[in-house]
Amino acid sequence: MYYPNKSVVSFYYILLLLLLCSCDSSSDAAAQETSTSSATVPATQSWTGQTTNGIDLYNIPPKLGSLPLVELQQRAEQKDPAALYELGRRYGSGEGISRNPLKAKQLLFEAAEKGDADAQNELGIAYNQGLFGSIDHNKGFKWTQKAAQQGHPVAQYNLADMYEKGEGCQQDYTKAFEWLEKSAESHFIPAYTELGVFYSLGHGVSINLKYAFDWFYKGATNSDPRAQYNLAYCYSQGLWVDKNIDKAIFWYKKSSDNGFIESSYNLGEIYFYGESVNKNYGKAFEYFKKAANYDHEDSLVNLGLIYLFGLTGKKSNTLAYELFLKAAQKGQSKYDAIFNLGQMYENGLYVNKSLIKAYAYYQTSLKILRLKPTESSALTESELLDSITTLKAQMTASEIAAGEAEIPKVMQEYGIVL
Questions:
Q1: pLDDT for 210-254, tens place per residue?
Q2: pTM for this prediction
Q3: E strand intervals along 135-236
Q4: Nearest 10 degrees: Cα torsion 325, 330, 332, 336
């Protein structure tokens, strides 16, 4: 969970922008790669290994990691749960021993059955993520609950997540909140952030915006990139605190440096629009590129627009088209990218001019926009309809009919099912 980012920049908006204001361009800055992060903080820091025959290779946290293999095997033979867990981990990772995923799984189950909370937590994660085959939330809940009841902070966080979503159990925000509190009391930092979300939404507890902000701040100062994002968003919007763009930028940068791509995207927007700061297309480019490196759809679109209009001094229709195309092939809200591709066909930018294709792209974009009317975008339905009306005025009846026939092909090409 995290607060939503602002809307994607559209081709239409850029055209207006260039007409209404001068472009304050600065030099291009090449974005440096950082470690990737998903849109939400993972519920666990483990189970990241590849799988063989549906069984994870147990790239899981070590325990008794410094123990010599011979001594570890002896303790495992005596059914020491911690030793069973560690030996299973080593069989899975191939650390000092031949890798054997089936043996790893067997030892992990044995450790869990004997009450090892770490093993129970890992089994819960494995079942919830389908690492033993298909996802089984019932078994995932069983093992996660066992570990949580023993005070395992990650399991407590994961159990809260299951109660929140109703996975393997009846949805219950109150119980979710209670387990989050337990996880936070054990100093599991992602729980700080989630408590802030619960207090802000009133999930399982009365809404208390001061507490929400305080938990975000606590998570942010403990280097949780999601908390840093939420805190920055609060400052950027003046939510529960005086609006302060400098503090927003400070925390967005912290979050971006920690690999949270939504923060990189929001920084790009701040500098692109000049939100209480000097407009700087060079910095906007830098942060959009940083997010686009991980295929962030809106950043791909915005980066394409910067190249298309040469806002940083480097104009490239080729790169713009490639970025729009990549964005159109990803994500759920594809209409901005598809609309921009239509604009390129209408104007013959990089591609051969084709009003028929432009018409099909515009109509496809309109269909998606109407399917998801609540999604934020700089491109509105009325603007899209104006573009279609203007285009149709240049087309013959047979061209419009050909454009209509082209729509299913465009939808199929980009995997759009309405």
A1: 999 999 999 999 999 999 999 999 999 998 899 999 999 999 999
A2: 0.78
A3: none
A4: -20
